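One such shown below:

_____
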Amino acid sequence: MSRESQHGKWTLSSSDDEDEDPSAQTTEVSRERVEKTRGVARSNQVNREKFGAGVTTSSAKRKKESEDTGWALSSSDDDCENSSFADHRKARNPSPKRTKPERARPASPHGASYYKEEPADVFDAGFLPADGAFRFYLNRVTGIEKKFNTGALHIKGSVIQKSFNYCFDISWMVQQYPPEFRDKPVMIVHGEKRESKARLIQQAQPYTHIRFCQAKLDIAFGTHHTKMMLLWYEEGFRVVILTSNLIPADWYQKTQGLWLSPLYPKLPEGSPFLAGESPTNFKSDLLDYLRSYRAPELEEWIQRIGEHDLSQTRVYLVGSTPGRFLGSDMEKWGHLRLRKLLSENTQRVQNEEAWPVVAQFSSIGSMGVDKTKWLAAEFQHTLTTLGKGKKVSTSPEIPMYLVYPSVENVRTSLEGYPAGGSLPYSIQTAQRQLWLHSYFHYWSAEVTGRSHAMPHIKTYMRTSPDFAELSWFLVTSANLSKAAWGALEKNNTQMMVRSYELGVLFLPSAFVSDMKTFKVQKNPFPATGSSASFPVPFDLPPQPYRNKDQPWIWNIPYTQAPDTHGNVWVPS
């Protein structure tokens, strides 16, 4: 079967759909390897090739994404290794391994002028923006209007002490510390194995203050995709949960999000271990998440967190951890965890069937042969849960808007086609679920000045029919995949989750006890921290793909129209 767009034609095989597609289950891994296989951006002038790796982020990314310093991380599904890309028509000859060069910024496919030079204060993180109620921030982006970076955060200048992530560039990470803190102890929690693990450890050889903890990945095709930092200070500690990897590619021209906790003070000597709990049970849930790693290296951190007061936390933790879960454990992780929180802590609204679900992500796994296999069944059941009581009828079906960049979004982005290296939706997965594409809406973020900064952020929400209110909002590392969110098995008596993921859920009742909804903030920038309305990072309502739009698929060529840097895309 063929599909055609203004950017060319691509052919889909007629193979039967599979409910579980191993290649699709690893879409996030592939997407993070995308930068590794970023494809050659070939100039359409003369027949000359340009280096098209752009910001390379891939397999390393799939394992680690981020940490300390209190803010920002990197894009979730790219390989962290820099790699050059040869024209796919050329014979692939083995070449000797090369040592990864250390750079202050990632290699650019467009030359030294790829990144706009900004004033030094653009990346100055020596201060925090006004302490808004939600503590939800976007990253700073180069090449956009200055006002849209007011109140946004960057990693530079932060101190990273414990970092959970998918992808790391250790030399770059260390350079983000103030010089006087570059020898402070750091622990990196990762999911790398074999050769990629050896490369990660080799990166850290010059830095004797860095230690590692390997996350157990016992189920095939799972990844350590969590992006979290634990930051320790003399006065206490912070938790940062974000969508960026600890690689430079994720911090400059992508849209990323993070939640920055309050500074948690130490409890009085002799306090019970679970003293200092929040109304959202955040402390216990964070400790349970850390225990799920079953790692002796984390015991010290578990004890230290227990000694602190987390009572000011107003968000709920929503995590995934690999395993097959039964009974009440099914509701501890993945989308059933989200369902439980929505059932227990939200209230029903009038005309509920008309309140749409909006899901925005940067990678897509296998959904099955049709929508009833997972998306419009168990997952939609979770996303449409509001309060206790009778489940809302799905006839008429509750609207679901899926926001994922189109080819045109990527082509006209700040990075051009290389931005697609962090959007690893593969042709192998896409050809098995053409039904899914009717749900797609393109990326537009005029409200935050980030329409051309491709999203690596992942957000889920329930909005009013006029898109002026939210019944809840979630920012997370979890993309649209069963590996990330889990899937029911054995006649719905077992929950299987493949990957580690982490996010925070914002519920109105956690901020004001009798509040049912948040108002959507109309002008999030310049951020002042004083608004009581919620800053959604992209435009509402989402707009459906236009006639010739196609979803970005990273492993097929785009040669008929050049990107913003004059390149085309030819994956190797």
Q: What stands out?
A: Confidence is low (pLDDT under 50) at residues 1-95, 97-117.
